[in-house]
Amino acid sequence: MAYYHDDMRALQDRYEGRAVADRLETHRMHRAFSEADRALIEGAGFFFLATASEDSVDCSFKGGAPGFVKITGPATVEFPDYDGNRMYRSLGNIKRSARVGLLFLDFGGGKFDGSAARMRINGLAEIDESPEAAARHHGAKRVVRVTAEHIFPNCPRYIPRMGGAETSDYVPAPGHTPPEPPWKSFEWVSDVFEAERKDED
Known about the structure:
By secondary structure, the protein is α+β, with helices and mostly antiparallel strands. The protein has one domain: Roll (Pnp Oxidase, Chain A), CATH 2.30.110. About 25% of the residues lie in helices and about 25% in strands. The protein has six helices and seven strands; from the N terminus they run H-H-H-E-E-E-E-H-E-E-H-E-H. Strand 1 and strand 2 form a beta hairpin. The radius of gyration is 19 Å and the shape is globular.
């Protein structure tokens, strides 16, 4: 898969961007994770996931305790699919089109020294519903594995500095039972979960 498609190239030429784009591809884009990539990705408590099919585009926030995204090979990462709102927009799109984009951000204030404060991964995703995969991520219902085609950091120029972030109390963790989110008690959906609670009793 080419890093730039024809329409990207056309705009690079129109706005005199091809020379810089070529340098970024040569010097910044890579196809295997570095130790700096690992530090950012496996230290992240969240990332954004973009998925698409021929008739649906979706961008989703994915959060967890730092380390919930794991690098499992030279160019593969995996992350857990936790209990959610059951729309399955991201997973449904992945079933139709494996192409995904992941965006990791470090709001701690990046440096202009080549280290990553913003990491983008474009690649192909698959859903693993095996018990073995879920067991690697506490509280996971299933796991999404991504094989990276393009890994590329961006400079921190427009990333705001935001400190004091704490992991959500809803994130699964050993020895911790997350509380039930309030939305499950909303009038328009509470009967669904009430029936499930009775089944569990």
